[in-house]
Design a protein that fits this description.
3-stranded antiparallel sheet, alpha+beta, binds fe (ii) ion
Length: 282
């Protein structure tokens, strides 16, 4: 089968047409999809209709899947699937505009994910886009002096500050001290080399990067703020307008994302996410 790959942005993101993921994907098609993923960092499929089993099966083509540190957000019948919904009963991660800050997922762990595959089941007719930033392009556009400054630096990442901020705002339940103690600081290179493409990407994010190893906090804050502002300029950003049946797969090593608001009282928004295990960034 030959796929049609259409760019959706100048530097990254492409739509892949010509495949029905529910009927399974043969090896040759998977090779094309994987290549498109590496070339574009984010791939988009429209009009898909997948069961939970099919979503998991497609995701497994990219590697081993992982759950989430907060296990009650996982689908009981399919613990590989994280449910994000604003019509949450127990066991659903509240989609309350909680992800409305720029981040790569789970960089507060030693081995952050390779990427995620987000499948839209129910979406509002307006609002609720997801924005993505190209962290290869952001790195490449830095001036030489800044590149020299950040190459070799080590960033400090944690979930604690972000979670506490959301818990204080009533957006997340308070967790036990034992659970909080599991979230220790981890260190990642500020500039990583992508293990598949060999390209360099900036790997700091507003969500979870809270310092730079060996740097005074005020100086680190100033540098991080400068890098966040740089990376999220319009020219590096694609905003995805969701339709039910859309699948968006992002490479978590070279992109960031940020939720945008919608009317949570008026509209339901329900997504399923699988997450593929990565390797330690270097
Ligand atoms: Fe996220």
């Amino acid at each position: 089968m030959s796929l049609t790959i259409t760019p959706l942005h100048d530097t990254f993101v492409a739509a892949i047409e010509g495949t029905d993921l529910s009927s399974g994907v043969d090896d040759a098609t998977m090779d094309e999809i994987r290549q498109a993923f590496h070339d574009n960092s984010i791939i988009v499929f429209h009009g898909q209709d997948l069961s939970n089993d099919q979503h998991v099966a497609f995701s497994r083509h990219f590697g081993e899947l992982q759950g989430h540190t907060v296990s009650h957000w996982l689908l009981p019948s399919h613990p590989e699937i994280l449910v994000l919904s604003n019509r949450g009963r127990g066991g659903v991660k509240p989609l309350d505009n909680g992800g409305a800050y720029w981040h790569s997922d789970i960089t507060y762990e030693e081995v952050p994910p390779l990427g995620s595959i987000l499948y839209a089941l129910t979406v509002p007719p307006e609002g609720g886009n997801t924005m993505f930033a190209d962290m290869y392009a952001a790195y490449e556009a830095l001036d030489d002096e800044t590149k020299e400054q950040v190459d070799g630096l080590i960033g400090i990442h944690t979930y604690k500050q972000r979670y506490l901020k959301m818990a204080e705002g009533g957006k997340r339940p308070k967790l036990s001290d034992e659970k909080m103690a599991e979230w220790t600081d981890v260190e990642h290179s500020v500039v990583l080399t992508h293990p598949e493409t060999g390209r360099k990407a900036l790997f700091v994010n507003e969500g979870f990067t809270v310092g730079i190893k060996g740097m005074e906090q005020a100086e680190a804050d100033a540098l991080l703020e400068k890098l966040f502002a740089h990376s999220t300029q319009d020219r590096f950003v694609y905003s995805h307008p969701w339709k039910a049946g859309d699948i968006v797969m992002w490479d978590n090593r070279c992109t960031m994302h940020c939720a945008t608001p919608y009317d949570v009282e008026k509209y339901e928004r329900t997504m399923h996410r699988t997450t593929i295990r990565g390797t330690k960034p270097v």
